[in-house]
Amino acid sequence: MSQPPPADAALRVGHVPGVTLTKWRTRWDERLTARLEVVEVAEADQRRVLVAGDVDLCFVRLPIDRDGLHAIPLYEEVTVAWVNKDHPVAAYDEVTLADLADETVLTELDAVALDRVNAGAVLLVPMSVARSASRRDLAHRPVSDAPPTSVALAWRVDTENPLVEEFIGIVRGRTANSARTQAERAASGAKPTKPARARTAAPSPANRRPRRPR
Length: 214
Description:
Blueprint: E1 10-15, H1 22-31, E2 35-40, H2 46-51, E3 57-62, E4 69-77, E5 79-84, E6 105-106, H3 111-118, E7 122-126, H4 127-132, E8 138-142, E9 149-156, H5 162-171, H6 182-187
Parallel strand pairs: 1-2, 1-3, 6-7
Antiparallel strand pairs: 3-9, 4-9, 5-7, 5-8
């Protein structure tokens, strides 16, 4: 069994742009007193920050070089065309890759890319990125036949931080009373949870005993 974390322990979690951790942070705060430090990481740096130990886990976009890393795929995101609001693409509900054949299409998000979008280029990004960085001068439309992007939770194979297992359990939907994490939670001052009270279901008509005739 791993050693419990010290009382002043903290877990460092990185995430690429567009990923929202609200529900997982809420569950963490409900169960543990250890600090959760969250930092946004550029997609180009997602592997580097893990290997360098700048973060304990990171929400990454696949593909990623998994040498020395574990990664749990979580969900997929629709790819959108991000354009200036006056671009012809903005007039449609959705577009296809063929519709963009004659356009200058970019796939790397940076300050230069956004300047080029304002000048008429098309930037392909996950929908969450366009939404999180919403601007009045830009619009985004789904690209119906573009490959989706996949978000995963990654961490180092050699990690020994018991809080990593706690966070993985929360992301995977493990309950607060999971035997796998109870020892670490108790040792780190986790908030106790009350087990749900069992409810006795009323017998169905098919299972009721017939009434005796009078």
